[in-house]
Amino acid sequence: MKKIVLSDNEVADFKAFCLSELEKSHARVRQIQAILGHLGTDVSDILTEEMPVTFTKQNRTEAINEADVNQKKKKNRRKKKKVKWSDFILTTIKNKETVMLANEIIQAAYDEFEVPDDEKQKVRMSLSSILTRMLNQEKVLRTYAVDGIRGRFYGVAEWFNDKQELAKEIKDKLVV
């Protein structure tokens, strides 16, 4: 049988969980004994003396507090900088002052936020879904297609006219 190694946080969490479950079980046994007593059943033959002594509220509270402190430390360690991707996308496109491919926007995010390799796929998926939402639902972005290039260029909606054509000054800046 394999041995499972648990961190101090996991041990404290598990200890608090077990203590609370034990307390619930003891409370349930006491409740059932009371019901049986009301029904006239002799409950003295039930071995309550051999049951382990219930933990005091202080012990249980200490274990729960210890688990909470460890959990807070764990959360703070894993806390990451939250990025509002839609704002990042808009500012990136506006700063470049021309339309951009999705891959260019994603690469800009990798460079700007120094995304580690193990999180690049997650960032790529987030940016793709947000680009789609900004295009279809919020309508703050529009796309521009160029023959011979796979994919579409994303640009700010105000750069397009009523016929969905890209403005001439933006089109002139486009390097293909």
Question: Can you put this structure into words, describing what you see?
Answer:
By secondary structure, the protein is mostly helical. It folds into two domains: 8-78, no CATH class; 85-173, Arc Repressor Mutant, subunit A (Orthogonal Bundle), CATH 1.10.10. 57% of the residues lie in helices and 6% in strands. Strands 1-3-2 form a three-stranded antiparallel sheet. The N and C termini lie far apart (62 Å). The model has no long low-confidence stretch (mean pLDDT 82).
Main sheet attributes: strand count, strand direction, barrel closure: 3 strands, antiparallel
Number of helices: 6
**Number of self-contained structural domains:** 2
CATH topology annotation of the largest domain: Arc Repressor Mutant, subunit A
- Which structural class matches the secondary elements? mainly alpha
Spell out the helices and strands N to C: HHHEHHEEH
What is the element layout, followed by pairings?
Elements: H1 8-38, H2 57-78, H3 85-96, E1 100-101, H4 102-113, H5 120-136, E2 141-144, E3 153-156, H6 168-173
Task: List its salient traits.
176 residues; single chain; 3 strands; 2 domains; 3-stranded antiparallel sheet; mainly alpha; Arc Repressor Mutant, subunit A
